[in-house]
Amino acid sequence: MTFPDPLLHEPSTDPLPLYRPRDGIAAVDLLAVAIAHLDFFTWLGENPATPGAICAHLEIHPRPTDVMLTLFTAMGLITQSGGVFLLTLRAREHLTAASPWNLAPYYASMKDRAPTLDMLKVLRTGKPANWGSYDASAWAQAMEREDFAQQFTAAMDCRGVLLGPALAKRIDLSQHTALLDVAGGSGIYACALAARHPHLRAAVFEKPPVDRVCRAAIEKRGFAGKVDVIAGDMIAGEWPTGFDVHLISNVLHDWDEPLVRDLLAKSHAALPSGGLLLIHDAYINADKTGPLHVAEYSALLMNITEGKCYSIGEMRAFLGGAGFEWIDHQPTAVSRSFIVARKA
Q1: Which of 102, 125, 148 is where one domain is finished?
Q2: Does 53 reside within a domain?
Q3: 24-63 residue pLDDT tens
Q4: How confident is the model at residue 138 (pLDDT cuts 50, 70, 90)?
């Protein structure tokens, strides 16, 4: 079978059913912790509570608690009224100790699974399950190996080759001239946007040694000379100027709120007046009731990073606080979407 150029075409079938098992793998462990370790549903059934009261009683951290409450809301197990969470009938019948249909014993066998225990630790501490075990220097050394570098690039490309063109097709950049893809990994998003908008000058801002992998990936894709690479640290240093569009794709969900605010402030400082900020990610809806796939994905991100999937309401607040004007929010593919904001 011959396939078309993936940067200019989208697949004819929807891969969402293949994304959901991978994206949602940690949601089961979060549910198991709530049932088998915390007996959360029995307690909440007797004590409707605010997020703060839930954190205090169960001795769990606010960030993973927020993710947990969003997931259970999207699953139809809890609801809220005036900021107070309470059980739905489904949870009351199937997840509380007094019910004859209680499924807690069914989940008890998951209690001592390593991933479940890791999730419990995340809830208690607010830190990722792999906190303290990640050796950045070892990773940098591994990036010098051709096999590891190719694997890393493939992991970034296989998702971006779907999402990049979907984003490029839906955003009008005809009035803009230069795009900076911040922490753009393999450069797949910058290449997709350059392919769809030939007038656009594009560059990827990446930290070494990913910048080297990025250059090789861009050249292999045939975009050398069309998409540049700028080495730098989006967190520690200032951002390059001379670009009237910033793209931040699948980045903010790795970081907690203070750093997200800092990164948006850096974007605002580097953009000219009227410049655009595109934030492509998976978002929880404004009232934090779903969608379920994103709530499941948020559990994974909360477990392995310092972040989560942010809600549309949270993003509006972050952007407004940084001095941006909200312009639009549109879907791309597989439950992802992008926000457009403008520097006033």
Answers
A1: 125
A2: yes
A3: 999 999 999 999 999 999 999 999 999 999 999 999 999 9
A4: low
| Domain containing residue 70 | 16-125
Whole-angstrom distance, CA of residue 312 vs CA of residue 315: 5
Own/partner pairs, 327-333, CB within 8 angstroms, 24+ separation = 327/276, 329/283, 330/170, 330/171, 332/163, 332/166, 332/167, 332/170, 332/280, 333/10, 333/14, 333/162, 333/163, 333/166
CA–CA dist 48, 135 (Å, integer): 42
Q: Domain count of the chain?
A: 2
Which residues in the chain belong to E strands, given as ranges? Answer: 78-81, 84-87, 178-182, 201-206, 227-231, 245-249, 276-281, 324-331, 337-343
CA angle 31/34/95 to nearest 5° reads: 85
Which pTM does this prediction carry? Answer: 0.94
State the sign of the Cα–Cα–Cα–Cα dihedral 39, 43, 44, 45: positive
- Alpha carbons 53 and 45: distance in angstroms, whole number: 14
Residue 143's pLDDT band (cuts 50, 70, 90): low
Collapsed DSSP state (helix, strand, coil) of residue 34: helix
| Gyration radius (Cα) of the chain, Å | 21
Beta bridge partners of 202: 179, 227
Please tell me the number of Cα atoms within 13 Å of 212 on its side-chain side. 11
